């Protein structure tokens, strides 16, 4: 699955499939505050969702943080 195939509102399963990690790990990342590296999300009832643009901004932030720690 590539970026263009993803819907505008993502589920934990979409994120797990895209990143190649378990859905359980995605829910763990949902529990972490965004400022501490967690995936930004919102709730609809009991379900958690992520806006596609927020998800890719989070990925970019993770890359930048990793690049900073290398130097």
From TrEMBL:
It holds the Pfam family HTH_17. It comes from the Bacteria. Residues 10-62 form the Helix-turn-helix domain. InterPro entries: HTH_17. This is Helix-turn-helix domain-containing protein. It comes from Desulfosporosinus lacus DSM 15449.
């Amino acid at each position: 699955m590539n970026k263009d195939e993803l819907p505008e509102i993502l589920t934990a399963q979409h994120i797990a499939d895209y990143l190649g990690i378990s859905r359980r790990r995605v829910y763990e990342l949902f529990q972490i505050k965004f400022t501490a590296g967690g995936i930004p999300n919102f709730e609809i009832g009991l379900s958690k969702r992520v806006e596609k643009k927020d998800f890719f901004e989070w990925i970019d932030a993770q890359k930048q943080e990793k690049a900073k720690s290398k130097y």
